Queue: 4 jobs
Job 1
Amino acid sequence: GRRELEMRIFTLLGQAAWRQSKYIQAREAQTQALMIARELGRRSDEATSVNNLAAFAYSQGQLADAAAGYQ
């Protein structure tokens, strides 16, 4: 449905922003994807979003946030 499409778009936007070193936008987009994944009960997409947020944190040297995301 529409919300699933929005979730996928936010995921892709987050990944694209991260690759362009736009870390704030990356985190915002991925957080939106995570919220939608949780709303829809899509555990695998939730895991993808949490993993991406952890990777974003790690790339910025935020090791505690990254470690929390990988647990």
Job 2
Amino acid sequence: LLNGGGKTLDLTVVRNDAISGIEIIDIKGTGNNTVKISAGDVLAMSTTDEIVIKANAGDHCLLAGTGLIGM
């Protein structure tokens, strides 16, 4: 859970072997939040090669290396 608003969780700056066993990332909070993640991050962190991003309206997910922004 990402507490508060206006926060960015940038997983592209974390070593791929530093986090594992993650299947859900929750960026909901009191304001608009952002998670930045790459395909390599997903493959390294998840045992299923999939990660679910839980978000509120106004939150964003940036897929690094693609230029895509979603939510």
Job 3
Amino acid sequence: LRRYGKGDLQATLDDLLGASMPALSARRGDVVLLGSPRAAGICIGDRAAFIASAGVAYLPLTQCVCAWRID
């Protein structure tokens, strides 16, 4: 974030990946943004995978605020 940062994680991802879309529009492989705490993850269907202190955390897409399409 220090190198590419635009003030916050969502603005940085918007700058790097383009305009965001609603989280529930995400498809497998798209980048998603968790609402709280802010974290980027990967859509794996109706859930998203995030790096956690104990490994990988799987959370429902309903907890995400937006997503970015990865083609």
Job 4
Amino acid sequence: IVVKFLTSARREYTVWYANSLMGTSWQQATSNAIEGTGSIYEWLDDGSATDPDPALLTNRFYRVKVGLAQ
């Protein structure tokens, strides 16, 4: 699964995921912030940073949080 999003300079992004939207807390998938460049960023969910592997699921939800670069 590839999550694509447009970035902006002087911003940092983190990808979060949940396997359900019912009573589940979101888990951070990216251990380090992604620096914005003004271009589209592609983050691959290959299961190395998420549990369980997305290939084993029928549903997974993603969100991208943005903050000011530090």
